[in-house]
Each structure stands twice: as structure tokens, then as C-alpha cells.
Design a protein that fits this description.
It contains 3 helices and 40 strands.
């Protein structure tokens, strides 16, 4: 796919410095630019590469003052970072665009499927499924009975949506993710065995959510596990039954959230965080990577870290103390030795 500087400038409402007929076929980082590539500079740290890059077209801020001549054709815009993000979205759309239906898939006769969209080979759509308009279902996706998928959502290969689950509009679910598997519910018996508790609830994923590859969201024992609007989940996350995650919260990879925990709005959770069950996390909380959250967080918009967690600044001070422990131990042993000699 080929674009000229003139076409790109028109799309971004930018101004061209150089040859308007210069063409590009791919995107690149500024420090790795090659002939025929399009790049950008917005961070002053990377401005040095503007004067040596081999990229054919570079998007820059209107305010940038050149220190040396440049070989590339420049497109000046109000905000280079935002402009390049716009191009990335367009490029991503071209790469993932699919339409129509491929052979060897199964769609139950009772399923209702909207206009447009795509259904890939070996996909399975169960009884009474409702699929909206312009939904893209990639190969080997499984959608169980009575599930609902909203308009413009994308399910990448090997995604599994269990029965009765609801996926909203503009949702992206990456490869291997599972929505609606059984919650981890077992009742201990007198003989030491465990009796499985049926998980009869579902999962509701609201609009504009993105779920990373191989993330698992368990269905509720009763009621619903709910992922609210705008939530972004990284790869390899475990969300247990009856968890509720508030609007526009962000959770990084390898985090585990135990059952019936309520996470507020606009919460940020780092990677490898462990959160126990039946607690609440206040709106706007920020939790450092590898933290262990063992009780409710009731103070909104505060930062936390450590295991067990503590206020973030306290945790940083504790880390300084931890680093000094071997030295402190040595001094204590020396003092004990001197005291013993004096005795």
C-alpha cells in the first residue's frame, strides 16, 4: 500500500516541506527509518535522528526548529504524536480488515447475525446467539449458546465466549482469551474432598473494552462478572467469578483478581499484582507491579505498592531499608561480639 506526502498531509491537515510526490509503503521508528518508510518525531530525545534517518517522510511538530538540513520530506502538524497515532489506526485497520464468510464454519440456524462483518473458517456460533453489525470473528472462534456480541466488535483467533455471556459494542478480544469459564467454586466435604458448586451466572463485557491474549474472565456463581465500559486488560490476566471492574480501569499482565472483588473507576494496576477476594478498591487507585493487596483500599486516587501493600512512598522508604539489612546485620553481630568480650 502506497501513499504520497500530499495524501498524508491532506489526511492530517499538515504542511509539506520538501517533495509532495514522495511516497511511502510502510511505517518505521525514526532511528530505524529506511527508504520508503514513514516516521515521526515528537520527543526531543529523538530529534537527533531526524538529521540522519533514511525515512522518506517524517511527521514533525509545527513548532520544531531545524538545527541542520534534513533529507526526508517533512509534514508539519500541530501534534506529531497524535497525528502518527491517527495513521497507526488507519494502518491497523488495513491490516485487520476482513469481510464475508470463509468456508467450513458452523452457524446454528437460530443465530441472528447483523450486516457486514466477517466470519472466519472453523468458527462456531451456537444456538440463539445474537451478533451485531460489522463484527469480525476470526478463525477457530467459539461462541456458545445464547451469547451476545455487539456491533463493531472483533474476536481474534481461538477466542472462546461461553454460553449466556454478553459482549458489548466496539470490544476487541485477542487470541486465546476466554470469557465465561467456570468460577473456582468448590465446597469442602467432611471426607476431605471438594464438591463443585455450579456456576450459573455469566460475564458482561461493556462497550469499548479491550481484552488481551490468553486472559481469562470467569462467569459468576450467580449474577454477573462485569467488565465496565472502557476497561483495558493486558495479556495473561485472571479475573475470578463475580468480580466487578469499574469504567476505564487498566490492568497489566499476569495480575490475578480473586472472587467478588469490586474495583473502582479509573484504577491502574501494574503487572503481577495479586488481589484477594471480597474486597473493594477505591476509584483512581494506582497499584505498583508485584504488589499484594490483602484488604480493601478505601482512599481514592492514592498510590500503593509492596506485598503486603502500603502507601507507595512508605514502600519506597522500606526498600531503602531492605537494601541495608545485610549491613545492619553485620553491625549487630559485631556489637554482640564486643559486648560478649566485655562481659
Amino acid at each position: 500500500m502506497q501513499f504520497s506526502a500530499e495524501q498524508i498531509a491532506e489526511l492530517l491537515n499538515g504542511k509539506i516541506e520538501g517533495n509532495p510526490h514522495t511516497t511511502v509503503t510502510h511505517l518505521s521508528k525514526i532511528e530505524e527509518g529506511t527508504e520508503g518508510s514513514l516516521s515521526f518525531v515528537s520527543n526531543p530525545k529523538y530529534e537527533q535522528y531526524l538529521y540522519s534517518t533514511q525515512a522518506s517522510i517524517v511527521i514533525v511538530d509545527e513548532s520544531l526548529l531545524l538545527q541542520k538540513p534534513v533529507q526526508a520530506t517533512l509534514i508539519r502538524v500541530q501534534n506529531a504524536y497524535s497525528a502518527f497515532t491517527t495513521l497507526l489506526k488507519i494502518y491497523y485497520g488495513f491490516k485487520t480488515e476482513r469481510t464475508g464468510r470463509e468456508g467450513e464454519h458452523f452457524i446454528h440456524e437460530s443465530a441472528l447475525i447483523g450486516e457486514g462483518g466477517y466470519i472466519g473458517a472453523f468458527a462456531y456460533v451456537g444456538k440463539n446467539v445474537r451478533i451485531g453489525n460489522n463484527v469480525r470473528i476470526f478463525p477457530h472462534v467459539y461462541i456458545g449458546d445464547d451469547a451476545t456480541i455487539g456491533d463493531n466488535s472483533v474476536l481474534y483467533p481461538h477466542v472462546t465466549i461461553y454460553y449466556d455471556c454478553v459482549v458489548g459494542r466496539n470490544v476487541i478480544i485477542h487470541a486465546g482469551a476466554v470469557v465465561g469459564s467456570d468460577g473456582f467454586g468448590f465446597a469442602p466435604q467432611k471426607d476431605g474432598s471438594y464438591d463443585k458448586i455450579p456456576q450459573i451466572g455469566n460475564v458482561i463485557v461493556e462497550d469499548d473494552v479491550e481484552i488481551g491474549a490468553n486472559t481469562v474472565i470467569d462467569r459468576a456463581t450467580m449474577g454477573s462478572t462485569v467488565i465496565h465500559k472502557g476497561v483495558k486488560l493486558d495479556n495473561l490476566i485472571q479475573i475470578a467469578h463475580n468480580v466487578d471492574i469499574g469504567d476505564h480501569s487498566v490492568i497489566a499482565a499476569q495480575t490475578g483478581i480473586s472472587g467478588s472483588t469490586k474495583i473502582g473507576k479509573q484504577v491502574i494496576v501494574g503487572g503481577q499484582v495479586g488481589i484477594v477476594g471480597h474486597i473493594s478498591i477505591a476509584d483512581g487507585s494506582q497499584i505498583q507491579a508485584q504488589s499484594g493487596v490483602n484488604r480493601s483500599i478505601l482512599i481514592a486516587n492514592a498510590k500503593w505498592g509492596g506485598s503486603p501493600f502500603a502507601p507507595y512512598t512508605s514502600e519506597l522508604r522500606s526498600q531503602v531499608v531492605y537494601a541495608k539489612l545485610p549491613e545492619l546485620e553485620k553491625r549487630i553481630l559485631e556489637l554482640e561480639k564486643k559486648l560478649k568480650n566485655q562481659e
